[in-house]
């Protein structure tokens, strides 16, 4: 995108030429971002005084640019706070310390083999909650910084995964083997590990070797092969899916062949193969199944013979340039606006209204810490409003997708994406697209599948924006003559913390959103490419065609979140307010009639089983956390959950891969908080969902007392997706945004946003001779000008 500097306006007011695109666009931005506020202030009664730095009515082009670094302190390493993720230096120190420990026999991952010992993943080992609270609420010292390091130990018998705690940071001197008492497997089998680069290297060699034998079949069927096929026709490329088998410990992965065009996900050719990679003796690994022409073969040789003797021959012509277009994002179709003009932008006319110091964010009455957990990405800790903690932790736990289909891949695929490490897939966000251009972008450090920390540039962003809808408003008017009597309103400005993870084909956008009325909202949005297969009549029952020979199949998206709710302390109670129908015919003002109406009863949930809730439309309910304090009206102060976006887990409990996401049995489940029940999932779920290392159901099964205890809510959002032609090239976030909210519920005596400076009250002057506008002392001046967009570089990750 090329952006030109506009020429300086001659007068105090903007003189805009239609062709001066930049100036026009920024004017639009100003109008949009100031919105109602600006309009009102132009007609203000004048009880606002210009700020000393305001340039009166001067054009914004004479202003200094809004600062990118204003109110932001990025570095967090000196020293890190208790919630800070591992720093680059800490990661290096931990790696080097461990490599020096001869007993662990570690090899650098680049030199590691499947039967060796190497570092698989590394992250912060957060101290126990009690220690953290003693530190941040009391006067105790900051707990020692520790790292949790996951090792692949293919060298041991049995081969296993190990978790080690390494401490103290930044200069470790000790390491102890960590055994989480809530884990269901000891030792953790190596077969529960995701396929990493060490294993992938061997598997690709097997694929290459076997496909070399079948080069003439590939070329005869698809016009291209897997080798020596550089050129415009494109190679075939192979990708594996998960889980690797149907039984615990099985490691048999199916692979797809696709044409290596842009958007290759949408060019499956109908060839699928299976590698058997059980055990650590890679010389025994094989390619043991081939699915071709909708037929299963038990060896490459059998497949080649069936092709050579003409029994099975399928030809999938190379798509021409036009046919390839469908998987790209190249603009096509008639131009809706000519010449093309920029859309509205988000801009902060008087600078940022929040500040960030390291991981700590302060936004108006909110403050919290941002933490990069690794496998499940960005989360927030110690979330406070008006200095009262609402939640100790709000965190995405898992993003899962359960597919249905007929062919080997579509009928096998069930994804548990935390195992793929969302932080390592949180790639660079694009200003003005992924986050508004006024956002602050942060790098993170990832240690997964690498020999050292990998910098993920601009991998999450924080921004304030105008949601474009009032948080509240009312137009008071006289019913008789229609004249207004007063107006009260407020824009819903929010602060958003966002990251996006690209897990192979799909992209997820995860937001933590802070509203000014004390509401926290979590949003998961799905976009990216759908998983597609080569069309066959059997799979046609599971989806729709998105191209002449490509079909995308049904699946269910499921997301799990953890909310460690602390309403005015850690001792809380969980109630459902059950909404029922009552019939009354006893009311004198209803004499002779029956009135059917809603009522509700408050049900205290005593134990975890009682609070593991499967949503039923016939039993609507509120989910309420209550403290032991009351508001001004004697009602217990609390927060409630509202779930917008639920889907039934259609895979029955304890079948197939379902145990790996047993949290999906419940829309909300409340458990007594335990440090060891840290997560509803683990990085081992994907490759052993049948007998998972973390089985969420076990958190509920012990059925502990949850009255006046420290409680955690596990929230499941979901969406069924039957893909359609408009899912090509990408699923749109529109209609695929799932949210839940944590809302004050009798917590305040009135709407907390009444304290906001963003409210506006308008009243008519006597005889409707003008209006009195109260905008809380805000003025409508701009003290800095928007930065220009400069999308000239992307993707320069330093590792
Ligand atoms: Cu989908």
Describe the structure.
The active site is at 417 (proton acceptor), 506 (schiff-base intermediate with substrate). The protein is mainly β and 799 residues long. The protein folds into four domains: 1-72 and 759-790, no CATH class; 74-178, Nuclear Transport Factor 2, Chain: A, CATH 3.10.450; 197-325, Nuclear Transport Factor 2, Chain: A (Roll); 384-468 and 491-575 and 628-755, Copper amine oxidase, catalytic domain (Beta-galactosidase, Chain A, domain 5). Helices cover 11% and strands 35% of the residues. The strands form five sheets. Strands 18, 19, 20, 21, 22, 27, 28, 30, 31, 34, 35 and 36 form a twelve-stranded antiparallel beta sheet that branches. Strands 1, 12, 13, 14, 15, 16, 17, 26, 29, 32 and 33 form an eleven-stranded mixed beta sheet that branches. Strands 2, 3, 4, 5 and 6 form a five-stranded antiparallel beta sheet that branches. It is globular and about 95 Å long. The two termini are 28 Å apart. It binds copper (II) ion.
Can you tag this structure with a few keywords?
single chain, 799 residues, mainly beta, Nuclear Transport Factor 2, Chain: A, 4 domains, twelve-stranded antiparallel beta sheet, eleven-stranded mixed beta sheet, 11% helix, disordered N terminus, binds copper (II) ion, copper, metal-binding, membrane, Amine oxidase, quinone binding
């Amino acid at each position: 995108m090329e952006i030109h500097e506009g020429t300086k306006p001659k007068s105090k007011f903007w003189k805009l030429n239609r062709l001066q695109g930049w100036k026009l666009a920024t004017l639009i931005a100003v109008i949009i971002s100031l919105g109602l506020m600006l309009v009102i202030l132009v007609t203000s009664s004048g009880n606002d005084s210009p700020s000393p730095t305001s340039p009166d009515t001067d054009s914004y082009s004479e202003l200094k640019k809004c600062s990118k670094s204003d109110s932001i302190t990025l570095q967090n390493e000196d020293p890190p706070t208790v919630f800070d993720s591992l720093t680059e230096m800490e990661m290096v120190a931990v790696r080097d310390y461990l490599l020096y420990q001869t007993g662990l026999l570690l090899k650098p991952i680049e030199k590691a083999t499947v039967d060796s010992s190497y570092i698989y993943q590394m992250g912060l080992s957060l101290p126990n909650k009690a220690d953290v609270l003693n530190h941040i609420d009391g006067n105790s010292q900051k707990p020692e910084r520790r790292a949790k390091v996951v090792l692949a130990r293919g060298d041991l018998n049995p081969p296993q995964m190990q978790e080690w705690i390494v401490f103290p940071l930044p200069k470790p001197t000790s390491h102890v083997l960590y055994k989480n008492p809530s884990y269901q497997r000891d030792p953790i089998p190596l077969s529960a590990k995701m396929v990493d680069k060490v294993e992938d290297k061997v598997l690709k060699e097997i694929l290459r070797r076997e496909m070399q034998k079948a080069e003439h079949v590939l070329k005869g069927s698809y016009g291209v092969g897997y080798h020596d096929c550089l050129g415009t026709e494109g190679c075939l490329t192979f990708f594996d899916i998960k889980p690797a088998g149907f039984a615990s410990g099985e490691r048999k992965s199916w692979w797809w062949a696709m044409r290596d065009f842009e958007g290759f996900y949408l060019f499956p050719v109908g060839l699928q193969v299976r590698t058997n990679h059980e055990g650590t003796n890679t010389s025994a690994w094989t390619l043991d199944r081939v699915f071709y022409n909708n037929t299963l073969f038990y060896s490459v040789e059998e497949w080649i013979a069936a092709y050579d003797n003409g029994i099975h021959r399928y030809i999938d012509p190379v798509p021409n340039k036009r046919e390839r277009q469908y998987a790209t994002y190249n603009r096509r179709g008639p131009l809706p606006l000519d010449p093309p003009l920029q859309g509205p932008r988000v801009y902060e006319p008087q600078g940022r209204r929040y500040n960030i110091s390291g991981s700590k964010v302060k936004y108006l009455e909110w403050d919290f810490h941002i933490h990069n957990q690794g496998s499940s990405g960005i989360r927030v800790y110690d979330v406070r409003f008006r200095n009262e903690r609402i939640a100790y932790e709000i965190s995405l736990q898992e993003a899962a997708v359960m597919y249905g289909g007929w062919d080997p891949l579509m009928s096998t695929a069930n994804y548990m994406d935390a195992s793929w490490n969302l932080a390592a897939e949180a790639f660079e966000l694009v200003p003005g697209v992924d986050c508004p251009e006024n956002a602050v972008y942060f790098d993170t450090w990832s240690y997964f599948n690498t020999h050292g920390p990998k910098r993920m540039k601009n991998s999450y962003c924080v921004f304030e924006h105008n949601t474009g809808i009032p948080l509240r408003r009312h137009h008071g008017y006289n019913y008789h003559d229609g004249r207004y009597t007063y107006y009260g309103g407020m824009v819903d400005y929010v602060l958003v913390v966002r990251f996006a993870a690209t897990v192979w084909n799909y992209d997820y956008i995860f937001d933590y959103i802070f509203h000014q009325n004390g509401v926290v909202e979590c949003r998961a949005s799905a976009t990216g490419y759908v998983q597609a297969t080569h069309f066959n009549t059997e799979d046609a029952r599971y989806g729709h065609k998105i191209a002449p020979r490509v079909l995308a199949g049904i699946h269910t998206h499921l997301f799990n979140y953890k909310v460690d709710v602390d309403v005015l302390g850690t001792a809380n109670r969980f109630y459902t307010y059950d909404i029922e129908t009552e019939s009354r015919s006893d009311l004198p003002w209803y004499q002779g009639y029956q009135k059917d109406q809603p009522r509700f009863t408050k049900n205290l949930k005593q134990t975890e089983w009682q609070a593991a809730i499967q949503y039923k439309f016939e039993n609507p309910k509120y989910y309420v956390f209550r403290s032991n304090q009351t508001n001004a009206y004697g009602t217990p102060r609390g927060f409630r959950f509202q779930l917008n976006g639920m889907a039934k887990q259609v895979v029955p409990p304890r079948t197939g891969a379902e145990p790996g996401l047993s949290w999906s049995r419940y829309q909300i489940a409340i458990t007594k908080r335990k440090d060891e029940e840290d997560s509803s999932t683990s990085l081992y779920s994907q490759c052993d969902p049948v007998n998972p290392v973390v089985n969420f159901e076990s958190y509920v099964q012990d059925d502990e007392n949850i009255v006046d205890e420290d409680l955690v809510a596990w929230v499941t959002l979901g969406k069924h997706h039957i893909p359609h032609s408009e899912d090509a090239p990408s699923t749109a976030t529109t209609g695929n945004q799932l949210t839940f909210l944590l809302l004050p519920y009798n917590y305040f005596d009135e709407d907390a946003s009444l304290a906001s400076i963003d409210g506006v009250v308008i009243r008519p002057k006597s005889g409707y001779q003008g209006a009195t506008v109260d905008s809380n002392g805000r003025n409508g001046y701009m003290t800095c000008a928007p930065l220009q967009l400069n999308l000239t570089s992307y993707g320069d990750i330093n590792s």
